[in-house]
Amino acid sequence: MKISEPPSTLYADRLAPRSSTELAVHAKKLTELRNYLLSTCFHRKLGSVLLLTGNSGTGKSTALTILCRELRIEVLQFEQEITYEFEDVQTCSTSGVISLYRFLRNSSKSFQKRRSRLLLIESLPEDVYKNVTHVRDELSSIFCSSSIPIVFCLSEIDSCWDISYRKLFSSTYILENNINSIHFNPVAPTYMKKALQRAERILNREQADGLLNNLIESANGDIRNAVNMLQMASTTTSKGVDGCMYRTNRDEMLHMLGRILHAKRLPTEKNQSSDSRPPLERDVNEVVDMSNVTTSTLLSYLHEHELSFCDNLKSVRRVFDDLSLCDALGARWEVRGRLPIECFSQFVARSIMYHNFRTEKKCRMFALTRPKNMDLVKEVEVFQKELLKDSVIGDSQMATVSVPFTRVIRKDAQPLPLQYLARNFSHSWTQGFDEWTKTSNLKSRSQNKFKKKQISTESEDEENVVIEDSDDCDSFDEM
């Protein structure tokens, strides 16, 4: 198969699937979508509406387009009207809602009865979400009178509730209007790897398996993002690709942390008690699922920056108690075997979003920095590897045998890291190893003389033994 498009075209367009066998979609979802098209387009029913949802890059619109092409179903797609304003010519612009109403009403009347067609809406105008109640009433009347299937192919937008399709198509509205719903899950790693290998065969290029695995892991189920990163890998160095993948994951993580720490809520109601809270702008489950960051990393960032967002000592104490509880439970193997580690993220996120409640919040920019304890953990790991290099003692005896007797076992070992690990706990973590070696913490610790003194007094007490005579007969005299 040869590619006739110019090399400047995006791989996502050049390598688009041509048949249903090339789709990176689960066969169950394809069968479900094909059955809907066969039952509605060839057997006309009034009020047939389909809500096709899923994350961006899961193959929703591509699967629908290919299946309609194979079934010979004509697709009429909605495009919002664009008006241009000039100084000399006066133009009257129409809103996006009115253009959507006009498209749905006029398209259903102008079609011929013998042809199989459907209406496709891939994006909703922004003014649809301004008056949701009125839009729902208008759409309900259109659904009842339309004889042509209407498909809403909408992507999930977790970053902004104001333009999310869930604001318009609620669960109650879907049930009242008999709207069919098909949800596409993120692309599985096996399907994505087959798609990337197919792209390599078409391009006559081969990438290392390690790079493909990194692309699949960084794409988060978005096949369009994976193909774009594959194009970048073929034109740039591996360092540029790794930087792109790191920035993508980092932006998602920072957005999630901002949602948790700021804990934005809806307007506060009057006469509200101090223990109650207004509803959150975003669901906690959706906020936690915004990034694939590990639980330990999430808890480290929240532990580092929680003090900057909490305004009273009582709330700080409760939040840090919850963080300490999760840290202690996560270290026990019997807890990890019965309780998923993701539950700790949910527990801490809910605790922080509850206690970081302030009636008056000022909008400000805040710089999230790397937790300082991560650098300390790295130093401990490096020092631990040095101790285990020439030692037969395992990790379990590291604190009891390796560290105390390192100077005896290895004469060339540096005593400074040992004293650094044995130093008093510092709550600020602002003093690094380089600065700590220059301070007075390296002074030799005085030996404890209390034990010697105590032993001498005990020995003196033992030497002063008094034997008293008894008037009674001894027990052994009777023998």
TrEMBL record:
This is AAA+ ATPase domain-containing protein. It comes from Caenorhabditis auriculariae. Residues 444-479 are annotated as: Disordered. GO terms for biological process: DNA damage checkpoint signaling; DNA repair; mitotic DNA replication checkpoint signaling. Keywords: ATP-binding, Cell cycle, DNA damage, Nucleotide-binding, Nucleus. Belongs to the rad17/RAD24 family. Pfam families: Rad17 (PF03215). The keyword Nucleus applies. Residues 458-479 have a biased composition (Acidic residues). InterPro entries: Checkpoint_prot_Rad17_Rad24, P-loop_NTPase. The keyword Ribosomal protein does not apply. One of its GO terms (molecular function) is chromatin binding. SUPFAM superfamilies: P-loop containing nucleoside triphosphate hydrolases (SSF52540). One of its GO terms (cellular component) is nucleus. It is found in: Nucleus.
